[in-house]
Amino acid sequence: MSDILKPELPAPADAARARMTAAYCRDETEAVNELLAQAALPSAERDLVLARATELVARVRAKADQKSAVESFMREYDLSSEEGVLLMCVAEALLRIPDKTTADKLISDKLGEANWEAHLGKSDSVLVNAGTWGLMLTGKLVTLAEETQRNFVGALKRLIGRSGEPVIRLAVRQAMRIMGHQFVMGRTIKEALDRADEKDNRPYRYSYDMLGEAALTQPDAERYHRAYLDAIRALGARVQAEAASGRYRDILDAPSISIKLSALHPRYEVGKRARVHAELVPKLLELAQLAKTQGICLTVDAEEADRLELSLEVIAAVHADLSLAGWQGFGLAVQAYQKRAPFVIDWLAEQAHKVGQRWCVRLVKGAYWDSEVKRAQEGGHAGYPVYTRKPNTDVSYLACAQRLFDHGALFYPAFATHNAHTIAAIHHMARGRPFEFQRLHGMGADLYAEVIGENNLAVPCRVYAPVGTHEDLLPYLVRRLLENGANTSFVNRIVDANLAIKDLVADPVETVRHFTSKAHPRIPQPAGLFGEQRKNSMGVNLGNDNELKTLADAIAASPQTWAATPLVPGATPGGTPQNVTDPADRRRVVGSWVAADAATVERALTNAVAAQPEWDRLPAASRAKILEHTADLMEASRGELIALCVREAGKTIPDAIAEVREAVDFCRYYAREARQMLGHPAALPGPTGESNQLFLHGRGVFVAISPWNFPLAIFMGQVVAALVTGNAVIAKPAEQTNLVAFRATQLLHEAGVPAAVLQLLPGDGAVVGAALTRDPRVAGVVFTGSTETARAINRSLAARDAAIGVLIAETGGQNALIADSSSLPEQVVKDAIGSAFYSAGQRCSCARVLFVQEDIADKVIAMLAGAMDELKIGEPRLLSTDIGPVIDEDAKKILDAHAARMDQEARLIKVAKLGEDCAHGTFFAPRAYEIASLGQLQREVFGPVLHVLRWKASELAQVIDAINATGYGLTLGVHSRIDSTIETISRGVKVGNCYVNRNQIGAVVGVQPFGGEGLSGTGPKAGGPHYLARFVTERTLTINTTAAGGNASLLTLGE
After folding, report:
1. Which residue, among 895, 838, 844, has the nearest Cα to 872 in the 3D structure?
2. Partner of 300 for a Cys bridge, out of 91, 137, 152, 332, CB 3.0 to 4.6 A?
């Protein structure tokens, strides 16, 4: 079993790399205190820097009235204004929507929501004052009539009424072209180069960035690779053309190229390390070799934190290639907001020393801060990879700058900043050593006009200049607009006369020194995400090599095989052990289990009935404490539990980690809910002289029948909900996953649940399950599985001559994902693949049907097919595997039969390729079909099959009706940028869980309570605030407090 994770672990790191990895999520206070010592200047020097920064800002403000109309527009519609955000959303989506109907719907949806007229007359700029909508409606800087200005909303409504949304649609597109010109250098590399030759632009150096999303498919990656090659050749040709003029004195003076590794490989991620090395290194090397021959620099942009060390491996492999010897133009960006940044610089210095070749390093602050914080919180990581306060990042930036200078000739540093204090500080610490500044095209031009040139600081500045069409511009542009307009943005604040210059150019070292808490007090650590309610479950950061190794070691140290038997005090089951084999390779025996016989079932019922009253009398707080102890035990045993999920259930490693986390979350969430709900009787109002209380008690004996697709999480969720509410539980797990259930039961017993209060009965559903559900001693059944089985249990409970039993059932779904033409096709495809195919399609919540608006259907379907080519199906023990086996041969036969029918009745879009290691397991290749109507699907297909349907913009009501007509109502995905469309769908489709603009799997306990309606279940939702109420019975106690001879409380009230 030691082969889980181990084969793909990286080789042991050298000392510098080890220091870097160790700092991944280091304590922020400790890190910042170190940085403060490194970034601080002596007081005399600090005063010089502040004086220089003050002078820069004063000069910019003196010329503030000369700023461009577009800059005025940007500052007015900043992030503090709803209108600014709406404007960006409208524009961003409009450029992407191919059909006019949806575009017009978006305009109606957004433009009525905002208070546009509040901005009119607020600025001296002609654009903001009179031309805010003149620009939007005509693309020209025009003056609006006074009447229009007085009653702007009325004028807008009249305009729409007279001309309709198409006029607005054209106007917004025109406005975005103006915005595009502000932030994008050109549509093509030639256009960008020509623009750089214009008089105002000639003083700057340029680095060109070819815009586009990350590659989702191999054709995407090839297209971006060709675009980079063409751009490098174009830059080289321009350098050659200028050779005679002497314009470019050296390689640093020449234009350069910036590239993103995510554009060059569709699976550039840590889990694909070997593939990335084999395929991405040669691509990057080819680009670097061409850049060398063309006499230009090439810089690799920084991306997300989890890919940092993988990117360094790729970049260092290229840097060390002998074909690049003597080339001084290869470099990368380093993000100062990452806690590893100083150690990255040290490691790069070692590589440069080893290879004998310098690095060009662009020091940036970092552009993905919000998503890094969210990712760490969602993943339950040990800490954040980034600083939680902006001033901390500013300090880190200065410390990293000093470090780059200290390493001398090993680096040519470039400092990307729009901050006057940073500019002044770096100019001071350089002490004449060579470096350059960098800024974004369209941002900070007024500040850098005071920096470049012999009469100013005489330091070169390179402009980071995006190149691309308006469609490619979207994500980049929106990010720039939001950055530019943010209230905290230096660019936005530099001309704000209400802000004192000394506050604007404050030394971040002094600012941070005075923080009582170095970490942001309102951003909890990931473990503290839920505050005092409960502790967040512990995840694994798969981008951290140390955590990967620790997990691999924990898995290797756990047992090699397991044996499950009934856990029933006083019973001696005599069944024959049955082997459990690995679904990924049936030749591998995982363990064995023994089925419960009739006598064992009877003994379990007798035990449970006898043990329940005493358990119910135990205070709810004591039962809750046992659940919390269980959660801690599971986290301590997670190596073994992950191994079990991989080996017995065929789960991939990320799925197994998520499974353990969900089980832990159930324990902690239900513990908290039980304390609140059952901790004290509820006092009820009534007349004086009387007390009325409501008590909650367990119902009696609950049977928990859990499925194989979440053998730990759903098993644990059912069992602990019934236990914490005072019930005795007889757990009957799915036959395919008895070993996981057995180990989970052992942990609950270890935590303090009495053996007779929780008993485990492995066995056949038709034998053990049926015997339990028809027994009159059973007060209720909690079940997850098929709708057919739920109906059978319901009938069995109803047929008893006993108290009416409770059934809590979560069943299947014919889950749909609806995408309209305002959605982003890349995101639709990514989420459809994750929702339909991951976990081998064996989640109740999986997407089975993708409704895609016909206007984008061809594009989405082509992209879906390409993305399916990138899936790796195979051995779930490896981190590089995306999709593992289906659970058993029976499941595979049902899927094979469905595929055979679809091959006849539908159009095949793609069948993913099975890996070579699939021969001995129950693997089913994920596939997608295009079908004509939802009626072709008679029942839920529980596996990795996606059915695609086209719909017209005018047919949304019919789509909603078709989904409701299936009778199922579990999950729904919606991809749209139009609020009214989202509202229509979410209100119209009767489902338990609706997810907008994300995937539709992975409901988090207490965050997205899970469960459906109709054929999809009874409710209440698991992991929600109403779930425990179904497991209890209510009793009221009324006491006449005057019976002893008077109402003392009333008589002693006084006046």
Report:
1. 838
2. 332
CA distance 513 to 524: 21
Q: Among residues 810, 870, 875, 940, which one is catalytic?
A: 810
| SS3 per-residue string spanning 879-897 | CCCCECCCCCHHHHHHHHH
Distance CA 519, CA 525 (A): 9
Quick one: average pLDDT of 80-87? Answer: 46
**Per-residue pLDDT, 82:** 43
Which DSSP letter does residue 516 get? S
Residues in CB range of 198: below 8 A, 6 or more apart:
none
pLDDT of residue 151: 52
d(CA 736, CA 650): 11
Sheet (strand 849-853) strand order: 907-911, 927-930, 945-951, 849-853, 816-819, 971-975, 993-996
Distance CA 164, CA 159 (A): 7
Residue 739, φ and ψ in degrees, nearest 5: -70, -45
Q: Cα–Cα distance between 405 and 396 in angstroms, integer?
A: 14
Q: Are 947 and 850 in contact (CB under 8 A)?
A: yes
Active site residue 810: yes
pLDDT at 524 > cutoff 90: yes
Angle at 50 between CA 46 and CA 51, to 5 degrees: 115
Residue spans of alpha helices (H) in 258-319: 273-294, 308-319
DSSP conformational letter for 712:
T
Note whether 928 and 860 are within 8 A (CB).
no
Residue recorded with tokens 């500013």: 394
Give the H or E element holding residue 464.
strand 461-467
Specify whether 602 is catalytic: no
Report the SS3 class of residue 526: helix
pLDDT, residue 178, reads 63
Which amino acid makes up residue 716?
Answer: M
Report d(CA 264, CA 258) in Å as an integer. Answer: 12
Write the DSSP string, 181-226. HHH-SBSSHHHHHHHHTSGGGTTSEEEEEE--PPP-SHHHHHHHHH
What pLDDT score was predicted for residue 631?
A: 98
Cα 601 to chain center, whole Å?
Answer: 45
- Token digits of residue 1012: 């459906």
- What is the distance between the alpha carbons of residues 452 and 942, in angstroms, rounded to a whole number? 64
For residue 586, give every residue at least 6 positions away whose Cβ sits within 8 Å of its Cβ, in sequence order, or none.
920, 921, 922
**CA distances (Å), origin 63, targets 60, 445, 591:** 5, 12, 78
In the chain, % helix, strand, coil (3-state, to 5) comes to: 50, 15, 35
pLDDT at 597 over 80: yes
Element of type H or E holding 607: helix 598-617
Rg (Cα) of the chain, in Å, rounded? 32
Range name among 19-23, 123-127, 414-418, 909-913 with the lowest pLDDT average = 123-127
Bridge-partner residues for 300, per DSSP?
Answer: 259, 332
| Residue 617: count of CB within 10 angstroms of its CB | 10
Q: How many helices (H) and strands (E) does the chain have?
A: 39, 28
How would you class 493 by CB atoms within 10 Å of its CB: exposed for 0-12, middle for 13-18, buried for 19 or more? middle
Tell which residue, 540, 516, 523, 495, has the closest CA to residue 653: 540
Write down the catalytic residue from 297, 844, 846, 918: 844
